[in-house]
Amino acid sequence: MANIFGIGNVTLDIINEVQHYPVRDSEQRALTQRVRVGGNVANTLTVLRQFDHQCQLGASVGVDTDGERIIEGLQAADIGLDYLKRPKQGHTPTSHIILDRETGARTIVHYRELPEYDLPTFLKAEHKLAQFDWIHFEARAMEETKSMLALAREVVRDQPVSLEVEKDRDLLDQVWGIPDIIFFSKHFAQQRGFSDPRAFLEQAHQWAPQAQLVLGWGNQGAFGFFSQNKEPLQHRPPSRKLDVIDSVGAGDTLIAGFIHARLQQMDHRAALAFAVNLAERKLEQIGFTRLGPADPQNKPDLL
Description:
The protein has helices at residues 40-49, 65-76, 119-122, 142-155, 186-191, 197-207, 250-263, 268-283; strands at residues 3-7, 11-18, 32-38, 54-58, 91-100, 106-113, 134-138, 161-165, 181-184, 212-216, 222-225, 233-236. The chain is an alpha/beta fold. The protein has one domain (3-19, 33-290): UDP-N-acetylmuramoyl-L-alanine:D-glutamate ligase (3-Layer(aba) Sandwich). The strands form two sheets. It has an eight-stranded mixed beta sheet with strand order 4-1-7-8-9-10-11-12, with helices on both faces. A four-stranded mixed beta sheet has the order 3-2-5-6. A hairpin with a 5-residue loop joins strand 5 (91-100) and strand 6 (106-113). Helix 1 (40-49) crosses helix 7 and helix 7 (250-263) packs antiparallel against helix 8.
């Protein structure tokens, strides 16, 4: 299988599941509480590892108690940690998540007091970059991300370099020309003033004409703009009405599904369908386990 390097954020997720979202100034008992490793890129790699890909994480993890819990969780998931940044000062990022059992929706309060992953740390992997089959970035700390993307593009010629864009950030418009594949969130499209996914992708194609574009759109499934296709605009709707249990990380799972499908030489249309199908399975279960092809609950079209 493939060798994948993911650069971005890792957090300690503290998930309180409630019967319904609390009203202001109210008190409510949580139905369950779970503590697990989270963060966009970490979630994506956790899913990809279940498909037997070798995964390395580039992220910033503190040396505090929460940081050690993250390290233990990543090791248990068999994620490579050769290129972590371990600042001695600051607190490991945490996400306190309220998960509404009635709707499956989640509300996140994120706290971080830790330096972001940076170019000097990334340079430790420079001599190994050409050995990766895929390099995936999360768009954050854009001055550093821009430099890391540029270095990856300089070193890596034939392997894909992808970028996840979850929210609008300064300097984003300066990196559109670098990645081969860009994953957008519905939230970002709406921040840029778009309510129609097709109109957004047509505009985004003007920003990044070299890139293949993937856009998750909640209960409408996902859309893609694949410029080499006869019909570049693609839509994969949900396959069925879902019983949503846990929406935390559904977008990260969509990205993992698309990356895996493309590494398996699926065309873009099939990869989009595979990614939506995998994200659906994630929505109907708690957490990120039991998503790989070896799981007995897996559907035949995921093999």
